[in-house]
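Researcher: Go.
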Amino acid sequence: MLTIRRAAPSDAEALLSYLKIVGGESDNLLFGAEGVAYAIEQERDLLGKLAEAKTSAMFIGTVGDRVVSVVNLNAPTRARTAHTSEIGVSVLRSYWNQGVASAMLEHLVAFARSTGILKVIHLSVRCDNVRAVHVYEKLGFVHIGTYERYMQIDGAFIDVFLMNLYL
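Model: Structure:
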C-alpha cells in the first residue's frame, strides 16, 4: 500500500539513492542514472527548507520502507510570481501503471490548494510521454505550448509540452 508523506531531512540519503535508480530507468526525467548533483548534507539542507516552506514541498511515496515515488512543488518567493509553482514527479518503473503518479499528484495538488496562495501549477512533459500527458490531462492540466528542443539526450533533441493547472 502506498503511503504519502512530506519529505524530511532524514530522508536525504534514501532520496538520493532513489533518484539515481529512477533516473536510470527512463529518459523522461531531466537527469539520468547520475541522479542529482547534491551531497547528502546539501540534500538535507534542501529538505529542511522544503519541510518548512509554505508554498513549496516535496512528498515521498513509499511502499513499506521503499521510496517508490517523489513529487515536488517549487514556488518562487517574489511577490509578482508567488502565485505560481512548478512541479516534478517520478515513479520507479516497477510501479508504473498502478495509479502511483495519480495519487502523488492528487496529494500535491491538494497541498497547493491548501496554501491559499498558489493559483497556477506548471509542468513540462516530453511530447512522446503519452501516459504522463494522459495523467496530467485527467487531473485538469491544459496545454499552453510546446518548448521545442528542450532536452537533448545522446545527441537527439526532444520537445516538451508545457502544461498548467489553474487552481
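Model: The chain has a mean pLDDT of 96.
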